[in-house]
Amino acid sequence: MRNPIRRSKKIGITQGGRVKDGRPDEKWSRFLSGDIWQQLSQNTPDSQCRLLTENPSKRFYHPCQAKDYLSILNRLPAHLAQPVKAIVLRRIHKLDYKLGIEARMRFSCVILNAFPRSNEMTWPGKPTEATRRHYERWCSNWINQDDQKFILRWTDEEVKRYYLYHLFLHEVGHINQPWSIKQRQREEFAENFALEWASKLGKLHKNLKFKIECKAQNILAIF
């Protein structure tokens, strides 16, 4: 006989409906609720960028302070810096850690996840050439453990430089990307933006040559 009193603890977690494949997972709208980011993105009377820092937990830390990112923002042209309304140093969520997501852009906010205290990134298999090229500009200390586990080991200075002059600038690029840009070009635009300004600020390895390709006139116009 069905007991109407006994109810599953998972009831309500899907906010009124199941998600992909019928799994009782939380929806993205709850995981990254738009309300708080919309409020942070609203204009303030003094037009200052808000700075927020969460406790990173024991296994993680924030490589840079919020004021460090603000100093980088102040070195950018005003028309690129003003759209950034908040910088959030966030305690990394389990899903972000699992997916390898290091930073996000929500509305006009730059969100930077905490970094492992071990200063190591781990891959269960051999990383792709694209992955190696991406990190080569910032860290190239790869450790191969029997071809089954690959570790990228950073120094404190490398992590700090990567967060300040790549992750942060990449998300600022997203905030400044033209509304007309196509979805598939957005990551390319933000990556080019970050590399361009990291180079202008003198924070890329001098002996590393890279080529920035911009395929649309509206991408070139913003630099």
Word description of this protein:
The chain is of the alpha/beta class and 223 residues long. It is built from 9 helices and 9 strands. The chain has helices at 28-31, 34-41, 66-74, 78-81, 94-99, 129-136, 156-176, 186-200, 217-221; strands at 50-53, 60-61, 86-90, 103-106, 109-113, 115-116, 120-123, 142-145, 149-153. The strands form 3 sheets. It has a 4-stranded mixed β-sheet, with helices on both faces. A hairpin with a 3-residue loop joins strand 8 and strand 9. Helix 7 (156-176) crosses helix 8. The radius of gyration is 20 Å and the shape is globular. The termini are far apart.
Layout: helices, strands, pairs:
Layout: H1 28-31, H2 34-41, E1 50-53, E2 60-61, H3 66-74, H4 78-81, E3 86-90, H5 94-99, E4 103-106, E5 109-113, E6 115-116, E7 120-123, H6 129-136, E8 142-145, E9 149-153, H7 156-176, H8 186-200, H9 217-221
Give a brief rundown of this model.
With 223 residues, the protein is an alpha/beta fold. It contains nine helices and nine strands.
Report, as a whole number of angstroms, the end-to-end distance.
69 Å
Mean pLDDT reading: 80
Structural class of the helix and strand makeup?
Answer: alpha/beta
Residues in helix, %: 25-40%
Which band does the percent of strand residues land in?
15-25%
